[in-house]
Amino acid sequence: MTHLAPYAAVLTLLFVALSWRTIGLRRRCRVAVGDGGHPELLRAMRVHANFAEYVPLSLGLILMVELQGSPSWLVHVLGVALVVGRGIHAWGVSQTAENFRFRVAGMMLTFGVLVTSALELLRRTLWVMWG
Prior knowledge:
Shape: elongated
Radius of gyration: 17 Å
Distance between the termini: 28 Å
Helix content: over 70%
CATH topology: Four Helix Bundle (Hemerythrin (Met), subunit A)
Largest sheet: none
Number of domains: 1
Order of helices and strands: HHHH
Number of helices: 4
């Protein structure tokens, strides 16, 4: 069993919630494609798209970290950081009067997950090659 599973599940539920929010706004604004000039719909679309852009790569990297035999505590730290980061980013960017601290903190956590995962994978790869 993978330690990543609960984080992937929570992120999936958040993705579905963001999807439903965007669909609801599309219906309310009567816009099938694009934002129709509605700033609230554009913001919801970008929150949804940003989530979709970062989460799959992040989950894939964390899974590789786990499969490479990294300690479970690292998988949990990365999973929690990704869930928190994506959650506060989505919440912050969703606000009409956006507080950039949430956006920045969310992206910093997400980038931290990406960079930490990548460096751990490189470390383990180089250790095998030269160790």
